Amino acid sequence: MIRRFATFLGAAVVVATCVGGPAGGSLSSAVAEVAVYAAASLTNPLESVRTAYGSSHPGIRVTLALDSSAALRTQIEQGAPADVFLSADLGNPQKLVDGGLAVGPVTRFAGNHLVIVVPKANPGSIATPADLARPGVRIIAAGEQVPITAYATQLIGKLGALSGYPADFASAYEANVVSREDNVRAIVAKLELGEADAGIAYVTDALGSKELATVALPPETAVSATYSGVVVAASAHSAEGTAFLSWLAGPEGQAILGDFGFAAPE
User: Fold this and answer.
1) Residues of 139-168 as b/e, b for ≥16 C-beta within 10 angstroms?
2) Which residues does 69 contact at the CB level (< 8 Å), separation at least 6?
3) Which pTM does this prediction carry?
4) Which of 131, 169, 201, 250 could connect to 205 by a Cys-Cys bridge, CB 3.0–4.6 Å?
């Protein structure tokens, strides 16, 4: 009986190692996992990207880790097992390249634009961007290292320079910030729950939410965001990661990103 069990166990191990490969295949035919560390604002399109890429590349399985671009860069610097890094800016991937932790050059793959978002009920009665500086308005923002913060600073600077806006617009806006979140998705989530009156997010976040509305911005204050990616130097699947990044920046990837409101990279 013991000998019979051992024979069965050995056969089971062989079968398990062959699952996922063609008949007569070897371990080299197993599915390769490509770990993609990506900005939280890419959450929605990347679910569709993962499905589409898996369908056309059956030997690859894409896994996702989503957070602030700055937080993910730090994780990669500390040795996180990422294969591809997709950031909501150019700076974070370039820092990895400059530090020898990623393979350059940085690949631009998407564009986005900033908007002011409010809960649909608009509890703060935000009618124009100038209302962001009105006393008592509660604003949700992001931490200093999160890319949306740098973009938002540009937007607030442009608004403050407009005729009719107070000279202290930027400082009044900052005084109204009641919370700083880890990423832009957290900003959106809190506004959807009605925990604040307004925030600055990406247009794709507004398009993806049924609970938020936007406040019109003067055309001259438009701020664009450029998304970029790199393959991590320590990747165990650098060839597969390079292929994925090229696909994302190509026609098929661009079509999916466009479906979710992303623009072509500038």
Assistant:
1) bbbbeeebbbbbbbbebbebbbeeeebeee
2) 39, 87, 88, 89, 92, 146, 147
3) 0.87
4) 201
Determine the Cα–Cα distance for residues 169 and 135; give it in Å rounded to an integer.
11
Angle at the Cα of 86 from the Cα atoms of 83 and 91, rounded to 5 degrees: 115
- Cα torsion through 80, 146, 45, 258, rounded to 10: -130
Phi, psi (degrees; rounded to nearest 5) at 207:
-65, -30
Structural domains present in the chain:
18-111+227-259 (3.40.190.10), 112-224 (3.40.190.10)
Q: What is the DSSP track for the chain? A: -HHHHHHHHHHHHHHHHHTTS-TT--GGGSPEEEEEEEEGGGHHHHHHHHHHHHHH-TTEEEEEEEE-HHHHHHHHHTT---SEEEESSSHHHHHHHHTTSEEEEEEEEEEEEEEEEEETT-TT---SGGGGGSTT--EEEE-TTSHHHHHHHHHHHHHHTSTTS-TTHHHHHHHTEEEEESSHHHHHHHHHTTSSSEEEEEHHHHHT-SSEEEE---GGG--EEEEEEEEETT-TTHHHHHHHHHHHHSHHHHHHHHHTTPBPP-
How confident is the model at residue 23, as a pLDDT?
A: 38
